[in-house]
């Protein structure tokens, strides 16, 4: 029996609100860092870990969160994750030291890793009609992207008005309301598998955790630092071991056939590269606006409103386009627009005025909005429902890794260029180095657009299977 339309809307509203909160927390803390440093006496390294501690745990445990939901029930794991995330937010707001705040941020990352994979897989089960599902995913993706885009816009004014703790307190009422509503409206689905892949769980957490840690510490410590090299070596051993274990497992947490499907691979590349370019740019733009142009945190945040508006407009449009024409056009277009935006931003220096480059922010927002929904729709359409949590977790892990790697790689480019141009003034050197990093990011995104265009090209005379290379979908178990 299909759930009534009102119930579906409540499910969608619950999932959108909680995903907005989880995505918002990725970026809202950035504008609070100077105030946190002043009040908690945090050094640069401590502030970096306030931001990246969340990403470390989130990326390391996303696959675990997906497979736990597949095995023990997506509603149950989603509710557990939401409770952990809300408690972590309250602990962060109440923190009296840098160490406590970093620990609370890691606890938030654990909660986000548990709730994020279940969100998309629950949507798949509730919205069974393809057109209806595409609209739902378009809205869900738009709200998720909105959380990333609106974080800086909200963060600056909130810090100015209420202090740094407010960027964490905002999650608590949303989380409590989400828990109460989710407990009433979210359906549960019977688990299809019984065994827990403990070797895979351990190796994935160790490998992804070590990789993210090394990428976070590399720019600050130097890439030849003993700790960085040791962690990179751990990742280099653990991740291939994880792949080998999963290839031999009868019930893997990561079905490697996911990557045999070139359409799914194209969607995964798109998600990774959008995060690579746009998270990298988002990390450096506040530094340009505040440290070089002299803007306040509130002004720097409000400057991103055009980009936010374009994401809101483009996400549902790209969802409808993907449902009609397939994912190739919106994904390639979105990557190309983001590449154009990053490259164009490198044309403006410290003397540029906002009206001159606002079109660049509009272009980047349009590009981001074009990619979020088609990636999610592609994964849901082509993966066995029993593996929906795994597939969603895989996608989100790649997105999170793309963001961390983007910050690390573009940061390394910026640092190298800055070292080579110290003969000029500080601001001039920084702007020159930033331009170099932006051009590298734009080039990488342009190459990704070409690769995705090739991966998603239609096969002549062949209608692609909706689950190419993956198990044929079975009838979905009835919700309880």
Automatic annotation (TrEMBL):
Keywords, sorted A to Z: Antibiotic resistance, Cell membrane, Membrane, Transmembrane, Transmembrane helix, Transport
Highest taxon of source: Bacteria
Name of a matching Pfam family: MFS_1
Transmembrane segments: 77-96, 102-123, 135-155, 161-186, 198-216, 228-245, 266-288, 300-322, 329-350, 356-380, 401-424, 436-456
Gene Ontology cellular component list: plasma membrane
Any one GO MF annotation of this record: transmembrane transporter activity
CDD domains reported in the protein's UniProt record: MFS_MMR_MDR_like (cd17321)
Membrane topology classification: Multi-pass membrane protein
GO biological process, one term: response to antibiotic
Record-linked Gene3D superfamilies: MFS general substrate transporter like domains, Multidrug resistance protein D
Compartments it resides in: Cell membrane
Xref: InterPro entries: EmrB-like, MFS, MFS_dom, MFS_trans_sf
Domain annotation Major facilitator superfamily (MFS) profile: ranges: 11-460
Membrane among keywords: yes
Chief place of localization: membrane
Family: Belongs to the major facilitator superfamily. EmrB family.
Name of the protein in question: EmrB/QacA subfamily drug resistance transporter
């Amino acid at each position: 029996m299909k759930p009534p339309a009102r119930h579906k809307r409540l499910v969608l509203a619950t999932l959108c609100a909680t995903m907005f909160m989880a995505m918002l927390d990725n970026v809202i803390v950035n504008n609070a860092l100077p105030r946190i440093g002043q009040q908690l006496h945090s050094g640069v390294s401590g502030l970096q870990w306030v931001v990246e501690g969340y990403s470390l745990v989130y990326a390391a445990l996303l696959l675990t969160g997906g497979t736990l939901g597949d095995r023990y029930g997506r509603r149950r794991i989603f509710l557990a994750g939401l409770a952990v995330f809300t408690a972590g937010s309250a602990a962060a707001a109440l923190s009296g030291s840098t160490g406590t705040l970093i620990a609370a941020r890691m606890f938030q990352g654990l909660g986000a890793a548990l709730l994020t994979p279940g969100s998309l897989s629950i949507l798949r089960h509730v919205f069974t009609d393809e057109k209806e599902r595409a609209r739902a995913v378009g809205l869900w993706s738009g709200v998720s992207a909105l959380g990333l885009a609106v974080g800086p816009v909200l963060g600056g004014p909130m810090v100015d008005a209420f202090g740094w703790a407010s960027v964490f307190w905002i999650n608590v009422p949303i989380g409590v309301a989400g828990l109460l509503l989710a407990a009433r409206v979210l359906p549960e689905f019977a688990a299809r598998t019984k065994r827990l892949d403990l070797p895979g769980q351990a190796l994935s957490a160790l490998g992804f955790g070590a990789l993210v840690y090394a990428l976070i510490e590399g720019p600050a410590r130097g890439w030849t630092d003993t700790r960085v090299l040791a962690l990179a070596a751990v990742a280099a051993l653990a991740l291939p071991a994880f792949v080998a274990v999963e290839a031999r497992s009868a019930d893997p947490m990561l079905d490697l056939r996911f990557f045999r499907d070139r359409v799914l691979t194209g969607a995964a590349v798109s998600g990774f590269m959008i995060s690579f370019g746009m998270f990298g740019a988002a990390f450096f733009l506040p530094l340009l606006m505040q440290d070089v142009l002299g803007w306040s945190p509130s002004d720097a945040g409000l400057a991103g409103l055009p980009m936010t508006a374009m994401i809101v407009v483009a996400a549902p449009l790209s969802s409808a386009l993907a449902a009609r024409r397939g994912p190739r056009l919106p994904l390639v277009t979105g990557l190309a627009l983001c590449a154009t935006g990053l490259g164009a931003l490198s044309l403006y220096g410290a003397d540029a005025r906002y009206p001159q480059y606002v079109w660049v922010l509009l272009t980047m927002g349009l590009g981001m909005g074009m990619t979020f929904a088609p990636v999610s729709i592609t994964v849901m359409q082509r993966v066995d429902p029993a593996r929906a949590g795994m597939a969603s977790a895989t996608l989100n892990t790649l997105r999170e890794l793309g963001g961390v790697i983007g910050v690390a790689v573009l940061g390394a480019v910026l640092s190298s260029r800055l070292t080579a141009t110290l003969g000029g003034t500080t601001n001039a050197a920084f702007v020159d180095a930033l331009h170099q990093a932006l051009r590298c990011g734009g080039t990488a995104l342009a190459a990704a657009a070409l690769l995705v265009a090739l991966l998603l090209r239609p096969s002549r005379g062949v209608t692609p299977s909706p689950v190419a290379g993956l198990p044929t979908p079975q009838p979905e178990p009835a919700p309880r």
